[in-house]
Write a structure and sequence with these properties.
4 helices; mainly alpha; two-stranded antiparallel ribbon
């Protein structure tokens, strides 16, 4: 949410795994409103990730709610 809203840079939000130096995670905000996510914003972040990484995996909440729909 912070990256999409412009309050954090993608490079600031990415967390590098301590065991695998080439594995990065982009965690979802636990405090920000998930309704602030937009389809266009999620698509833009994924496009930016694809330009940097060979593989991009999206994990989503169980069920068919907004977070799961945007991840698809």
């Amino acid at each position: 949410v912070n990256v999409i809203q412009g309050t954090a840079k993608l490079s600031q939000a990415l967390i590098r795994d301590k065991r695998l130096e080439t594995l990065y995670l982009l965690p979802a905000s636990q405090t920000r409103d998930k309704d602030a996510l937009t389809e266009e914003g999620v698509a833009e972040v994924i496009a930016r990730l694809r330009s940097v990484f060979d593989y991009v995996f999206c994990d989503s909440p169980a069920g068919i709610e907004r977070g799961a729909q945007l991840a698809m």
